[in-house]
Amino acid sequence: MITALRTARATLRAGGVPAVLRGARRRLARKLDPAPRPVPKSTRPKNAAAKRPAGPPAVLDAYVHTAPSAQCAVDIFQGEWSSRLPAAVGASAGRVGLFDDARIHWAIEQFGGVDGYRVLELGPLEGGHSHLLSTAGADVLAVEGNTRAYLKCLVAKELTGSRARFLLGDFMAYLREPDGHFDLCLASGVLYHMREPMETLALTAAIADRLFLWTHYWDAEVTAAKPPLAAKFEDTTTAEVDGFEYTLHRYVYGDALESSAFCGGNAAYSNWLSRADLLAGLARVGWSVDAIAFDDPGHLNGPALALVATRQR
Predict the structure, then answer these.
(1) Are 301 and 245 in contact (CB under 8 A)?
(2) Band of the pLDDT at 12, cuts 50, 70, 90?
(3) pLDDT digit string (tens) for 76-119?
(4) If 304 and its partner were Cys, which of 14, 71, 276, 299 is the partner (CB 3.0–4.6 Å)?
């Protein structure tokens, strides 16, 4: 220490700056003007421009840049349509002729016309049957639980000029608290999507005087002969309502749930009834079956039939 002080005095006498002062000056300078610290490699982008979108914002994809047309509206749900729209619409949609369906024409004939009828339709899908009933003079209220199907109904209504009214919601909840009574309940392609099909039938009998039903039904022999269909069924359970015993055959949708065109029930499975349980169940809840048609045990997706019924007095 003594040697360092002597060296510093000598340096001052000679007009220089002692080393100890030079070191203190450097330390003070670093405190007053510190050097910037390097950005850690993990947080430094290799290419800042890579964070910017390569093209226009995705929100612009929602705009249409062609002249207005029916096809523009249909293409909002491109690849999702089941129904073939009427030729007068001038747009290509699905392949199934639900807007000119022989089953609905048959039902209207069986009822002697539906002009002036107040009709409740369960699960209109894309509004094809609603359109036919409306064209025949009925006042149609249709309840659809699938949001995309509901919006397709509105598109079809705009394009066809249908007078039907569509509601979005669970039709089972509506059946439990209906808005009045109906002359006819139309349930086409919905019963086999129910987990409690007997409850559905009972509720229809409580709110309508007439019923049109088209549905698949379970058949042991037919199912066993079709491995792809048999693979959809998991198990069977016995159920009972007010002393009426019947069997539920659980149908699992599986991979179909991954399709944007899925149009089944609102759960991962449903329960099918056998033909015998279906007919007995209808009678049990108060329906009298007047006619059966389109009974097709060999239907691609499982045995199916159509029927019309009137409420027992």
Answers:
(1) no
(2) very low
(3) 999 999 999 999 999 999 999 999 999 999 999 999 999 999 99
(4) 299
